[in-house]
Amino acid sequence: MKKSLVQFLACLLALIMVIPMFTVANADQMSTFNGTLQARETASVDVSRIRNSGIDMTADVAVKEQRNPEDIVTILVELEAAPAAEVCEDLKAAGNYREQLNASHKTAAAMINEKLGTEIVIKHNYSVVFNGFAFEGEYRLIDEINKLDGVRAFVDMEWESPNLFNTTTQVGAVEAWALDYSGEGTVVAILDTGCKVDHPAFSVEPSNVKFTRDNIASIIASGELQGSGSQMNVNSIYVSGKIPFRWNYYGNNADVSHKSSDHGTHVAGIAAGNGGEIQGVAKDAQIAAMQVFAPTGGASWSTIILAVEDCAVLGVDSANLSLGSPCGQESYYDASYAEVFERVTALGVNFAMAAGNDYDANMNNAWGSSDITTGTWGNDGYGLVSNPDYGVVGSPSTWPASLSVASVKNSKTQGYYITVEGVNYGYTENADNPVKMRQALGGQTVEYVMVPGVGTVEDFAQVNVQGKIALVQRGEINFTDKAANAEAAGAVACVVYNNKDDAVNMVAYEGGHIPHVFISKDAGAALAAASDKHAFVGSEMGISDAVGGNMPSDFSSRGVTSTFGIKPEITAPGGQIYSATDPSISGTLYQAWDGTSMATPHVAGGMAIVTQYVEDNFPGLSTRERQAMVDRILMSTATPVIEAGGTYAAVMDQGAGEMNLAKAVTTKAYLTAEGTYSNRPKLELGDDPEKTGVYTLTFTVHNFGTTALNYTIDPSVLLEDIGLLGYMDEAQELPVIVYTGESWDIAAEGDEVLLGDVNGNGTVEIADAVKIARHALELESYDEAVCDVNGNGVVEIADALLAMRVAMELAEPTYTSAGYVRVDKPDVVTVPAGGETEVTVTLNLTDNCKEYLDEYYTSGAIVNGYIELMPVSEADGVSLTIPFLTYYGDWNYAATVDRGYYYDEYPFNSNNYANTVGYKKGSQKLQQLGEIPFFDNEDDKPALYEYYLADRNAISPNGDGLLDTINLMYMGLLRNAEVRYVVLDTNGNELGVIADYGVCTKGFWDTDTRDQLGVTYAQFPGNYNFTQYNRSDLIVRIEAKLDNNG
User: Fold this and answer.
1) Which of 325, 427, 600, 872 fits 354 for a cystine, CB–CB 3.0-4.6 Å?
2) For residue 982, which phi and psi values (nearest 5 degrees)?
3) Residues 842 and 715 both lie in one domain
4) How far apart are CA 839 and CA 867, in angstroms?
């Protein structure tokens, strides 16, 4: 051991020191970051005032894929000329112009071939809403093409369908049908994995259709559609009056049948199915089945744009895209993608897009532990209050033209069930299970037992399950082991209940002799709480009550966007949605699935229904205005949903609220807001760097009815509630403050009171002073708290005199400090028939509130909520709602690069990503920053080396294969940003760029791969040569430039 130490000390003299520094910057400048929560800085925090003094707390690493220069990818090239949608008023007359654009593509390709010595072969031409072409080539060509004039190249983007996890009544569709609004005469496009077009769910043809067989034949004959080949004919494309159009854009044929996923059939059934066992939201709308996914794998932008252009050519009314990528970016190459959708919406197409199923960026992070001092990881994870940018809402739903859709839990589900204390609870089971629950126990009432732990042999030994149903929690051991342990213990069935609010497909219990089924986390909690633990097993399908129905789905991706915008914008049922499936894939004709993939087609169908209503009430609108009006009415009439604590769920969870078609097709008013896409009703106020706490909310109410409408204002002002997770040390001096995942309505805490305002009209007047004097003389009685203007606890003539001075503007008004927000609003809003009224509501955070925020919300706080317009009487129609979003503090201040345990005195594993410098050649061992690489046997390591020491941040570039370079450096990224690694000298002069990764997404838990994704890392290309800096002190700096426009 002594010899090893001497060797180390000798080598240390020759090492160069690599000290990482962390920077964060806005789009305009780079600056050193100093805004993250530091353990030392929290030592003096008085945790007694935190609303939640304690929280009940019940890894793999994946890195961002890097492209090699020689990788073959699909490249899109955009030309400068405007596409047909921006030049031609009528696309039907755009044939010649589109031919000119396609010819220019050939010219551009030839120019590129000539200048770069390539042999580009055009794969796709685009001319309707995007002017350009796609080809396959080496990744390196992108940079070379971008050096040429008149063209711009970028790599193709691939999206996946988000992971899968009675609703016509829940969203008000049944009421809309009763008023003859069922989507008749409209078309919903489903851009997805395909569709089983002969499914019974699509067997009922609407009586009034937009597309007949002859219409489709005429469009095909025009040559404007993207497809080609022998199947581009009406006999192949037209299926029925329900599905008049189908096309496979990946395969360039009319075969949209499923190969590996029936996701598209399920989605189509929700949006517009009619027949068999289901009715979709817009049951009388037609369906355009557009397959954009490869038979196995994702959907690329180069394929999706083909379908989007055909949406414009066909003139569909709404389009559903249940696909996307988490942590949606809004700038860089995405700008060209987003413009495509803006051009199509201008042609009258409404896009409903899934927000995603990735929870938030806190999922499965290091702060879900029951013992954070040891770094033991928990399941769900809490967000540190210093890191407010945890939204993972996905693109393309983050783009302006998209209506981003979140998910709420279904209030009812259909399927097989068990009944406990009169309540039905649905379950799922693998179709390949040899013993089915309904067959083995159907019609029987059986006692059940809650098995402790997770169903190990030892857990079963603690209870008697002989002849009973065993209820076992998901986790730690696989499903089949739980079932086998239950069978060995004598149970007649094994029911596994979830420990998370996500969907799970259990593997079959092959060779088992008892049923093996799965229920939700909520159902498991309800069965555990039941006093009578006997379950009736249904033998037929039935309707089950959903525990937690109409509440936000935990899996639904939260906002906000990286530019601090409101996305998602609306919500719809996405939990346990019963719809059509392909029996060749799923084993049955119908199944209940979960996901925003299921919520989004509710809204796409709702768009078709509201399109009917808009056409009836606004017959003269242009296609662009009609499209905008549909979005405005859907958002204005949405109903905010309530979370488990009884408070409205945050705007980040649901946007304007749950779609309510019953209100949408009966309203005679809608809302708009300036500065949003198409004046959508949402108030995005930006941040408040000066922390004034004063927010002015201005919007317009439009009355398109024949009588005046009157409303009162009901505000909800929400903060993200926080709590004390625990302490960083045993002495309990370093508190860790986190978001609880719940909202806190500070408006419900009571308004701040204007002292002296006895009349309660918001101002102090002479009449108020007179009443205070009469109260002081005991001639009349009023609210003493209001009359005590000078705050000495006694109402006296001096209070009346002070009120007089306030009324005469000789003294400043005084407010009580009991509340957290003062809301200044009109008593009644009156909107004249056929007119409009501008409404202003001002929120003033009190000193009491700002003091609380300044103490605990170290990087600032998201302030959000809803302004509800409540009808004064039944004659004033339905209620309307507008969400708002602002930020108390500087949104760009919060950390971008995660801080590791080395720098924050956090314990090992408090951060998911250790800072890895290099490796020992010939081994798989990575060296952590500050770690001594010479002790392969941990027992030989002196105690001196157990802790981090900055002087050990070193490499030895002498060519001996031991730490010659920095090979790999993991670093958690908290926000979307452009990332690069640079080498500096000790004076801060840049010597070289080790790696430039462009835009990287923040770290998040991917529910598909079940890995942490989005972490930035450096697997430095070519093993950057440090020999030129031998015996030098250097700095490796990680630069992160925020992915926003500010």
Assistant:
1) 600
2) -125, 155
3) yes
4) 11
- For the chain (length 1046 residues), average pLDDT per consecutive 10? 32 29 30 29 48 40 55 87 84 84 92 89 89 89 88 72 51 81 96 93 94 96 90 95 96 90 93 89 96 84 91 96 79 66 91 89 67 42 86 88 90 82 86 86 93 91 94 85 92 88 60 87 89 91 72 87 93 87 87 86 96 95 95 97 88 96 96 95 97 97 98 96 76 76 83 82 90 92 88 90 91 77 93 98 91 93 97 96 98 81 44 41 47 52 52 71 66 82 88 81 74 58 68 82 68
DSSP 766-825: HHHHHHHHHHHTTSS---HHHH-TT-SSS--HHHHHHHHHHHTTSS---B-SSSSEEEE-
Q: Are residues 581 and 512 in the same domain?
A: no
Strands (E), 395-521: 403-409, 412-415, 417-420, 423-426, 445-450, 469-473, 493-497, 516-519
Taking Cα atoms as reference points, which of 168, 246, 161 lies closest to residue 579?
168
DSSP per residue over 260-277, as a string? S--HHHHHHHHHH-EETT
Q: Is residue 383 part of a domain?
A: no
N-to-C CA span, the chain: 55
Strand-pair partners of 420: 423
Boundary (domain end) residue, out of 597, 615, 637: 637
Q: Quickly list DSSP for 438-466.
A: HHHHTT-EEEEEE-STTS-HHHHTTS--T
Residue 935 and residue 835 in one domain: no
The domain that holds 880 is classified in CATH as 2.60.40.1710
Distance of CA 424 to the CA centre of its chain: 31
| Claim to verify: residue 439 and residue 512 sit in the same structural domain | yes
Assign residue 525 the CATH number of its domain: 3.50.30.30
Identify the domain boundary among 126, 155, 184. Answer: 155
Closest C-alpha to 971, from 1046, 896, 861: 896
Question: Alpha carbon of 370 to those of 52, 160, 856, 957: distances in Å?
Answer: 16, 34, 22, 43
Cβ atoms 999, 976 nearer than 8 A = yes
Together in a domain, 613 and 692: no
Distance between CA 473 and CA 497 in Å, rounded? 5
SS3 985: strand
Q: What is the three-class DSSP state of 522?
A: helix
| Distance of alpha carbon 1005 from alpha carbon 555, whole angstroms | 11
Is residue 669 within 8 Å of 831, Cβ to Cβ? yes
Q: How do beta strands 124-126 and 158-159 pair?
A: unpaired
The partner residues of 868 in beta bridges, in order of sequence, read 714, 881
Task: Give me the domain span that covers residue 296.
Answer: 172-213+239-356+394-410+552-637
Burial of 958 (0-12, 13-18, 19+ CB in 10 A): middle
> Same domain for 325 and 343?
yes
Dihedral sign, Cα of residue 794, residue 798, residue 800, residue 805: negative
Could you write out the three-class secondary structure of 594-608? CCHHHHHHHHHHHHH
How many independent structural domains does the chain possess?
5
C-alpha span between 417 and 424 (Å, rounded): 6
Give the count of alpha carbons within 13 A of 640, CB side only: 30
Report how far residue 293's alpha carbon sits from residue 303's, in angstroms, rounded to the nearest whole number: 8
- DSSP letter (8 states) at residue 207: S
Please name the residue that has the structure tokens 């960026």: 361
Look up residue 82 and give its DSSP letter.
Answer: P
For 1, half-sphere exposure in the C-beta direction (CA atoms, 13 angstrom radius) is 9
Residues 465 and 592 in one domain: no
Q: Which two tokens stand for residue 207?
A: 């009586």
Same domain, 351 and 243: yes
Note whether residue 372 is domain-resident. Answer: no
Which CATH number does the domain housing residue 613 bear?
3.40.50.200
Residue 57 falls inside a structural domain: no
In a domain, 381, yes or no: no
Q: Which two tokens stand for residue 481?
A: 């082991």
The residue among 513, 577, 566 whose CA lies nearest residue 271 is 577
